[in-house]
């Protein structure tokens, strides 16, 4: 297990009238190399959970183990070192850019790791390639780039840590469909090529369906589901009740089923929908 | 009569802003009073630049822009334009000025010199329309994104504008916040008769409009009802825009020579068409060979 | 960390103190400070303490909270007191003990006075912010300073700046927190090293914060223009302040305090 939490509980403002349980007894296990989606609406505890995975937040109770190391039972140096194992890309990461050039900004993390100059350069170039940007951008100021490019530079800045786990909080938020598709495609390639673990936080079930292998669903600080994507999508009504957006096509097939047509409800892409409809047309038998 | 009108509008950002290229090329567009129009396009297509012309924040480099029957190029029209053509931006945090919700909603009224008693009435009305009356004494920074954006909208409609222009008002919100804001906009349009011009890159929001204008590279690419616009699936995808999954499914089925209608946008329409298809109303496909 | 600062904190409430016109509160706070410095006798301080205590009781804010406002100043209070004690001069208390000669009756008295004065001062002034929302304070300031508009002082602009600053402080605090976490995730270290290293470590926070503040300012300016903002001319006010009977009472009671203090100064 690359990530493991045991009875992880986090409370905000302990001992005041504003005390709030943000995470309630989370037991989570993520295997190395997996591509996992994390879904839940705002305030469900997603962001609090991921902030525990690289020791930005300390659990009120319970343990967080990264690659077998208990983050709060080891030395401070070891704890800091896990930040390089678990790369965390926050929401709107372009707001963290600060250096004069794209190169220097991506190099900020590797420099903090005290790597050699050659190694830093190698990492900057390789992570720039992972996010699909041209090397000609390296000497430009990050503030002269377009919104989508800035976002990608910021993500490259975390990829350059070459973490075993890459966690991204809504990496496509605020981008247009083109920007969103590009970033998600780059992430798929990154996952395939590096074999590292990816944890994608998103509101969009469609994005999770298209990218992740398994999905974690959170609600009110609790872990509601953790299963392969197909399994999670079988609970469409529950997900809708949680205020999550189910893909339109999935909703349509649920309605068809309710109307008495013998269709599958495991449908969340156009391809699958088309195949399902065509096979029924061929068979000519539709009602139960 | 059209309440907003752009005639052969061209616009170039000045060199000092670092962008010397033309952002709008010869755009002509008119919006009828009382309608709900969506402008759809990816980032950098010029849709926000176009919007900022309608209340005189930006002035045309070529062509003319009229709002509520007045030219935006004439300085003396500006105060009246600002009052009647309200504008809401993407980030609600950067539009809220006061530390109490009701005081923020009153901001524009204070600027307009509205008498105090009238102000109280209008603030309550505006908050009620966006369903935020219960939060009037709250601090804005403790609200959710959707709530903040509704406060920002209330701050504009308190001026009682005839047109409301929104520049990607939901881009920074979660699905719940997006629904709340869209609900408020439809209510404003239907109940108050306010003309709504919604700039967005979410096709599911555009689907709900009376009319969709698709922009690409500073030009109007398509301009029609949602049902017509979203039939141009190939064209929309070529300019990197999403189409409703229902429309795409129909498009894909057509490719297999299944004769379904193309103008299918909502869940319900899609369910009906698929049910009819399975019942054989669009023909018998039992012996057909499909490519997939 | 940053969120723990309590200066200028506001505790919402509905007490008579909360409901006083903010202008009354500003004026009375200034008045109270002047009175504190006029006091010359122990009895005078007692009168002021009773006055302060009644305000605390009336406001419904716990005594503990009020004491908290004094705590950060403990060092300054002790320092000023000791300083006064040493340099007062006068008759030594223990004339026969050589190394205690600096300790005089006068010194002890002045030290005690100074300590009590600062404590009452801090309590009184922080009480104004405890019971008045920042926006009310700014509004009241503008109203009190409005005569200065006659001499073309930018009173409205100043008050607008204060309002916007107050509105954006929580937003920027939040943003600082986020940026810090993001840089920590890239291995930035803000906690170790000497003062120069630490100052340098702040650059990755300050640059993004500044850029974001400018972007916000630009967007805010557009939004304000869209809401017909055109400076202070011809504006009406949403919040109107009315002097009520309770304001009159508050002033009367405060005048009584002044009278008592003067009387005690003269009599004793």
Q: What's the Cα radius of gyration of chain A?
A: 21 Å
Instruction: Show unreliable segments of chain C.
Output: 1-5
Largest sheet of chain C: none
- The total count of helices of chain C amounts to 11
The run of helices and strands of chain A is EEEHEEHEHHHEHEHEEHHHH
Total number of helical segments of chain A? 11
CATH topology of the largest domain in chain A: Rossmann fold
CATH arch. level architecture of the largest domain in chain A: 3-Layer(aba) Sandwich
Percent of residues of chain C in beta strands? under 5%
Derived structural class of chain A: alpha/beta
Mean pLDDT of chain A: 90
Order of helices and strands of chain C: HHHHHHHHHHH
Count the beta strands of chain C. Answer: 0
Helix content of chain A: 40-55%
The structural domain count of chain A equals 2
Strand content of chain A: 15-25%
Q: What is the total tally of β strands of chain A?
A: 10
* Assembly of the depicted chains: heterotrimer
Shape of chain A: globular
Largest sheet of chain A: 6 strands, mixed
Mean pLDDT of chain C: 85
Report on the architecture of this protein.
The complex is a heterotrimer of chains A (288), B (292) and C (268). Chain A is built from 11 helices and 10 strands. Chain A has helices at residues 46-53, 76-85, 102-112, 117-130, 147-159, 177-194, 205-211, 229-233, 236-241, 248-258, 270-283; strands at 3-12, 20-30, 35-39, 61-66, 69-70, 86-89, 165-169, 197-201, 214-219, 222-228. In chain A, the strands form 2 sheets. In chain A, strands 6-7-8-3-9-10 form a 6-stranded mixed beta sheet, with helices on both faces. Chain A has a 4-stranded antiparallel beta sheet with strand order 2-1-4-5, covered by helices on one side. In chain A, strand 4 and strand 5 form a beta hairpin. The mean pLDDT of chain A is 90. Chain A is globular, with a radius of gyration of 21 Å. By secondary structure, chain B is of the alpha/beta class. Chain B folds into 2 domains: 2-238, P-loop containing nucleotide triphosphate hydrolases (Rossmann fold, 3-Layer(aba) Sandwich), CATH 3.40.50; 245-278, no CATH class. Helices cover 36% and strands 21% of the residues of chain B. Chain B is built from 12 helices and 10 strands. Chain B has helices at 47-51, 78-84, 101-105, 107-112, 116-129, 145-157, 175-191, 203-206, 226-229, 233-238, 245-255, 267-278, and strands at residues 2-12, 22-32, 36-40, 62-67, 70-71, 85-88, 163-167, 195-200, 211-216, 219-224. Chain B has a 6-stranded mixed beta sheet. A 4-stranded antiparallel beta sheet of chain B has the order 2-1-4-5, with no helix packed on it. In chain B, helix 5 packs across helix 6 (145-157). Chain C has 2 domains: 2-132 and 242-267, no CATH class; 154-226, no CATH class. Chain C is flat, with a radius of gyration of 24 Å. Chains in contact: A-B, A-C, B-C. Chain A binds chain B through residues 41-42, 144, 146-148, 173-179, 181, 203, 243-245, 247-249, 251-252, 255-256, 259, 261, 270, 273-275, 277-278, 280-284, 286, and chain B through 18, 42-44, 90, 144-145, 171-172, 174-177, 201, 203-204, 240-242, 244-246, 248-249, 252-253, 256, 258, 267-268, 270-271, 274-275, 277-279, 284-286, 288, 290, 292.
């Amino acid at each position: 297990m690359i990530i493991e939490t045991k009875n992880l509980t986090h409370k905000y403002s302990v001992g005041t009238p504003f005390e709030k349980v943000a995470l309630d007894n989370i037991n989570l296990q993520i295997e190395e190399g997996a591509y996992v989606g994390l879904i839940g609406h705002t305030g469900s505890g997603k962001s609090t959970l991921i902030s525990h995975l690289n020791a930005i937040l300390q659990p009120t109770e319970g343990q967080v183990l990264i690659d077998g190391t208990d983050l709060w039972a080891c030395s401070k140096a070891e704890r800091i070192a896990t930040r390089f194992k678990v790369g965390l890309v926050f929401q709107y990461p372009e707001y963290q850019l600060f250096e004069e050039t794209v190169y220097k900004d991506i190099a900020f993390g590797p420099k903090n790791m005290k790597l050699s100059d050659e190694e830093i350069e190698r990492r900057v170039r390789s992570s720039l390639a992972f996010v699909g940007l041209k090397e000609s951008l390296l000497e430009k100021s990050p503030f002269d780039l377009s919104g989508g490019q800035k976002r990608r530079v910021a993500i490259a800045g975390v990829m350059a840590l070459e973490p075993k786990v890459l966690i991204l909080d809504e990496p496509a938020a605020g981008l247009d469909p083109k920007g969103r598709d590009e970033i998600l495609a780059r992430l798929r390639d990154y996952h395939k090529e590096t074999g590292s673990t990816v944890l994608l936080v998103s509101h969009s079930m469609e994005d999770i369906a298209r990218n992740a292998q398994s999905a974690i669903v959170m609600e009110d600080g609790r872990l509601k589901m953790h299963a392969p994507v197909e399994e999670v999508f079988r609970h469409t009504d529950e997900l809708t009740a949680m205020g999550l957006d189910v893909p339109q096509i999935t909703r349509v097939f649920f309605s068809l089923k309710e109307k008495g047509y013998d269709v599958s409800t495991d449908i969340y892409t156009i391809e699958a929908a088309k195949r399902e409809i065509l096979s029924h047309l061929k068979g000519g038998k539709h009602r139960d | 009569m059209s309440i907003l009108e752009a005639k052969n509008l061209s616009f170039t950002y000045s060199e000092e802003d670092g962008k010397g290229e033309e952002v709008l090329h010869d755009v002509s567009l008119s919006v009828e009073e009382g309608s709900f129009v969506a402008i759809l396009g990816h980032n950098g297509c010029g849709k926000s630049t176009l919007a900022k012309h309608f209340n005189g924040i930006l002035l045309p480099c070529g062509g003319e822009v009229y709002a509520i029957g007045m030219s935006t190029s004439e300085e003396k029209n500006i105060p009246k334009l600002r009052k009647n053509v309200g504008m809401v931006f993407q980030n609600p945090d950067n539009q809220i000025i006061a530390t109490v919700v009701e005081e923020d909603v009153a901001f524009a009224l204070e600027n307009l010199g509205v008498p105090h008693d009238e102000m109280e009435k209008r603030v309550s009305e505006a908050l009620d329309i966006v369903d935020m009356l219960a939060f009037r004494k709250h601090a804005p920074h403790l609200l959710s994104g959707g709530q903040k954006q509704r406060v920002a909208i209330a701050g504009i409609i308190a001026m009682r504008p005839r047109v409301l222009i929104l520049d990607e008002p939901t881009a920074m919100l979660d699905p719940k916040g997006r629904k709340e804001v869209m609900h408020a906009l439809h209510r404003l349009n239907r109940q108050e008769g306010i003309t709504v011009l919604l700039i967005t890159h979410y096709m599911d929001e555009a689907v709900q409009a009376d009319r969709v204008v698709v922009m690409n590279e500073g030009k109007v690419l398509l301009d029609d009802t949602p049902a017509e616009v979203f039939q141009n699936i190939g064209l929309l995808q070529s300019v990197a825009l999403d189409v409703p999954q229902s429309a795409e499914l129909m498009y894909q089925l057509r490719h297999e020579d299944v004769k379904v209608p193309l103008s299918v946008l909502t869940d319900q329409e899609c369910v009906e068409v698929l049910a009819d298809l399975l019942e054989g109303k669009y023909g018998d496909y039992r012996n057909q060979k499909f490519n997939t | 960390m940053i969120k723990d600062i309590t200066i200028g904190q506001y505790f919402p409430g509905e007490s008579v103190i909360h409901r006083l016109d903010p202008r009354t509160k500003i004026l009375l706070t200034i008045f109270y400070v002047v009175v504190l410095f006029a006091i010359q006798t122990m009895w005078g301080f007692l009168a002021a303490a009773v006055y302060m205590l009644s305000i605390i009781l009336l406001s419904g804010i716990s005594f503990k909270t009020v004491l908290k406002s004094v705590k950060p100043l403990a060092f300054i209070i002790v320092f000023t007191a000791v300083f006064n004690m040493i340099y007062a001069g006068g008759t030594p208390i223990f004339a026969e003990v050589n190394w205690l000669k600096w300790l005089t009756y006068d010194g002890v008295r002045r030290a005690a006075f100074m300590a009590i004065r600062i404590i009452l001062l801090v309590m009184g002034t922080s009480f104004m912010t405890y019971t008045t929302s920042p926006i009310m304070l700014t509004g009241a300031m503008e109203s009190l300073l409005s005569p200065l508009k006659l001499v073309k002082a930018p009173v409205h602009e100043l008050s607008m700046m204060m309002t916007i600053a107050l509105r954006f402080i929580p937003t920027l605090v939040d943003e600082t927190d986020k940026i810090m976490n993001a840089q920590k995730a890239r291995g930035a270290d803000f906690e170790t090293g000497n003062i120069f290293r630490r100052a340098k470590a702040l650059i990755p926070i300050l640059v993004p914060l500044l850029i974001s503040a400018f972007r916000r300012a630009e967007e805010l300016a557009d939004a304000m223009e869209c809401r017909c903002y055109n400076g202070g001319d011809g504006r009406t006010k949403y919040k109107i302040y009315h002097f009520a009977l309770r304001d009159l009472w508050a002033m009367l009671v405060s005048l009584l305090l002044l009278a008592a203090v003067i009387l005690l100064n003269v009599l004793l």
